[in-house]
Amino acid sequence: MLGGAPVESKREFGKTLQPAAASSTNHDMRFFRRHQYLLCFLAVLVFCCVMVLRQFMANQVAHVQLREDFILLHDQAAAPGCAGLYKSLIERLPSLSDRDLVDDLERTSMLVDPKAPDRDDLVWKYYESVKRELQNRSEQRLKHAVERAEKR
Q1: First-to-last CA distance in the chain?
Q2: Which of 23, 46, 56, 109 pairs with 70 at a CA distance of 20 to 30 A?
Q3: Where are the alpha helices (DSSP H) in 93-121?
Q4: Helix (H, G, I), strand (E, B) or coil at 152
């Protein structure tokens, strides 16, 4: 009997652990079953946010790459390729953010002399176009600010 008593207590001890572990697993599964639609929605929402941020960063990198390729082709005197990139950059000006425009203005201002206009130089033309776009945006922002101030 001495040998039998410890075996039974081991069995009883093992039985008490199994229901506790199973209970925890069942509780977790019940939680996931009850909230499966909410959890799926949250997973899709997080995935979409990550993809939007990734696309935003990819667009920003693509613009910087296009601008740097334009400058490189200009430095290498590859006129046909440079003209095509210039056209692409000019078409994208209205959709660029203010930060991208300021970056472009700073980058091109290092390459041109703003006081000595060179109407044949594509980098100078791009510099002037970016500067004009920023001025137009600031004028519009000023007009909206004045209108808002007058309403109050």
Answers
A1: 94
A2: 56
A3: 98-109
A4: coil
